[in-house]
Amino acid sequence: MMSLTKKLSIAFYWHMHQPVYQLTPDGDFLMPWVRLHAVKDYLDMALWVKKFDNLKLNFNYVPVLLDSLIDYQNGAHDIHSRLTVTPMDQINDEDKIFILNNFFDANYQTMILPNPEYHRLYKIVQEYGTEDVNVLTDQEYSDLMALFNLVWIDPSFKKSNPKLKKLVKKGKNYSYEDRVTIINVQRNIIKKIIPTLKKLVKENKIEITTSPYYHPIIPILLDYKEIRKDSFPDDELKNLNTEQDAYEQTKSALDRVEQLIGKRPKGIWASEQCISPNTLELFSKLGVEWSISDEGNLASSIGFEFEHDFKGYLEDPYHLLKTYDYKTQNSDIKMIYRDSIIHNLISFEYAHHNPVATANDLYDRIKIIQGKILSSPDEDHLLTIALDGENCWEDYIDDGNTFLETLYKLISEDETLETVLISDYIEKTKEHKALKKVSQGASFNRGYKLWINEPVKDIAWTYLKRVRNDLENFAKENPDKPNIQNAKKELYICEGSDWFWWYGEPNSSGHDNLFDFIYRNHLKNIYRYLNQDYPAYLDEPLISISPTRPSNYPTDLISPDITGKDSTEEDSEQWKNAGCIEIPDGPVLRESKLFDKICFGNDCDNFYLRFYLNKYIKNNPFPMTQAYQMYIYFRKSGRTQNLSPIRLINKSSNIPPIAYEKFHNEVEISIKSNELRFLRMIKALPGNMWALGNSKTMEIAYDDVLDLKIPFELLEVSSGETLEFLFINANYGMTDFYVPDEMILSVKRPLVPVKK
């Protein structure tokens, strides 16, 4: 009798990464995230395999993170931990200002609000600000430091460790000795991480892979000239000459993880899952057996578009559940691809709901996928659930423990499902599909615009190229000089993806100035190792180069026809004086972005907008199966009456300050299947409410582009007054990103001359 189910293999694959937060190898860490995620995520995420006999998990550790863990277990400090172990009589006013500004850096809903004393201190600082150090007593400062460090520790350790259990119960009135105990307990947790990983690998309960040493985007290092040729063919950045750097960063990563874990990684998680043909050639040359990317990359590689219904279920999951064989010049390399929807649900959505219900929802989704392979001609199918293994859990109740325990239990008790180590599965199955083409791109877009081809990012790359040239020239002339290898290490640090991710648009860390400072300092370190003076331009913060207003503001008034067409010289001429904003491909899946570029301008009576549809959506041969939304929020400068907050849902707790601004009008544009679904005007009401407004006087046209005309009168902006506005890409009412994300745009309605 034919079975009603086919066994489905599941690869849980958790990626762990932090950049370099030190200015020098023996200096304090300027940010605490390695330490805090170490006590919250790195150990307990692996220990789940000890709670379920048949559970197997895969982890990716970037070597620079492992190095940082070793520094901490050997006594290193960050600014936060050093203050925490400092007696109050040695903490000055400057330290207290730092504590007020940085020791509430935790999720409000899951970390601050549930803790009565921490929440009380939070409300005091929210009310009185951070400029007056007298808002808290010395005892309250001591409590704040203790509570900050306690809330970041995983709940499982606070329940099992007697010292932590006692300190959590205490709640307030923490002594200096208590604070020292907390940091010592954290250090002991960190000391267990690498030995535990090594032991579990030996027991074949987990698999450890790695990424290039300092997390560079390898295709940029290998294919920079090709990537940039269409953007700026004649600029200083024609070629980085970093091909050898890519090789060294990858080989040294494999060597380091083998040294620390005792087994050479068979797989590579390319940084940000950015792959290319040359990237896979490099991996294969170094003996790497497999790598991973996202379903979007698979779709463009095999010419098959994965369609999802309105609940996110894949219509046909077959191609996503297979392993692929790509032939390189050296040997074959296998590829697996993750499910994008499951990645997004765990990363952004599930945290906002009941953890038991969401775990069951994910289990149901897995079973629906399993049900769709019954007619498959193959026996082996692998569902890859791969994502960041650290940054989402603070958004969950109890750091995601209930969610993970429920999910792992449901899967472990289902005899038709199995969790696997990826290398074991690839070795076991013989059903690898041939992959004839590999597309360029990151996990969430088909380009690399989050790290390149943006004004501030490109300045950072220019600095790196200049410094690299100086290092190469020095090494050629002085091959026997000491510290050349140390200088190269500093260069490799500066090739890491994180610096370019935070520079410019569209991402904001909340600490961009600090990332900028660290980046430039490591460039300076190269000259220090060579006993040379560094160039003066490295003293100038790159973020100060970023304009406070877009350089592409309107240069003159415009009065374009609302045609929706951009196919003739006349069409373009009417918009030549408009301001325009390019929207990079992120930080979400490439298909979530509705527009590539927005142009804006005005005349005496109307405000004009032109939207250029995302080329991926516009040129996709398959019809759009989901609706796409763009929201525009408006307010008259100086107005204080009838303003309401943005009514969209944020996907994470990392909310930019601009999200708290209030406005008096909202315009919503929705497109589906390349057709305009609706245009709505929403108006603010007293009491922070919104209601449907009158949109009859607006004009819209959608063909090549989407043109929109809004009368100033509709927005209640009179002659001589300023209109302020911003854009939000927010599909299904959930914010993907703000345009721009650090400021509000504005145009001024000209004064209408009085006729004599």
Description:
The protein is an alpha/beta fold and 756 residues long. The model is unreliable at 546-551 and 586-590 (pLDDT under 50). It is built from 25 helices and 26 strands. Strands 14, 18, 19, 20, 23, 25 and 26 form a 7-stranded antiparallel β-sheet that branches. The longest helix has 27 residues, at 176-202.
What features would you highlight for this structure?
single chain, 37% helix
Short description:
The protein is α/β, with parallel strands linked by helices and 756 residues long. The chain has 25 helices and 26 strands.
Total count of strands = 26
Report the helical percentage. Answer: 25-40%
| Rg of Cα set | 27 Å
Mean pLDDT comes to 88
Sheet having the most strands: 7 strands, antiparallel
How many helical stretches?
25
Whole-Å distance between the termini?
A: 95 Å
Indicate the low-confidence ranges by residue numbers. Answer: 546-551, 586-590
How much of the polypeptide forms β-strand, as a percent range?
15-25%
The helix/strand class is alpha/beta
Multimeric state of these chains?
single chain
Shape by Cα distribution: globular
